[in-house]
Known about the structure:
eight-stranded parallel beta barrel, TIM Barrel, alpha/beta
Amino acid sequence: MTLATRIIPCLDVDDGRVVKGVNFQDLKxxxxxxxxxxxxxxxxxxxxxxxxxxxxxxxxxxMLEVVKKTADVVxxxxxxxxxxxxxxxVDKLLRAGADKVSINTSAINNPELINQIAQRFGSQVLVISxxxxxxxxxxxxxxxxxxxxxGTKSAGLDALAWTKEAVQRGAGEVLLNSMDKDGTxxxxxxxxxxxxxxxxxVPLIASGGAGKINDFYPAVxxxxxxxxxxxxxxxxxxEIKDLKAELKRKNVxxxx
Length: 256
């Protein structure tokens, strides 16, 4: 049975409010993360991802409050990432109503954290987020390396090797962010998707590069199980229902 391809809007949340420009005229407050989550859920999103980019990392309570309020009004899976450093952090988010958590730098710094989270809560709650970019450094024999700090700093790891290790340790899903494509709006990184997909047994979420409706199908054809985007949805350049209709025309199974 093939699973339906999922469409996932990503919301960057800073101190409880969505940033990275949103221009929904029909929302009372376009920066309110709960309002936005509600809007997306009503308009065909299959899941939502909240990325806590708060500068004040100690302000975790704000994010927990956002998750609680969102879980009360939205009934599609919610993934939360950003600043998760321990099993306790995961526990709090899941209790607040998150369905999954996404970890990135904390897993690079402490790979054992992947095992700990998977063993305690199950692989299905853990998404490993990987920011990859092209590299011809010795540490990146696959041609792609792992980065941190928004793609500005090399982690000195091969993207393929690290993805495989993270899945072996218990990650239940891979969020693959192409740093080369991020913000370019000229399509997903098909080469990167094709590199990773045959080497992992868990779902692959493609991220980075979505600019128009026709950019999504090639990513599915390359092997993505889910497609994540931010600004094209926030600015209504692409309506999720139109995107799903287009994927359906190409014989991709999507949820109505």
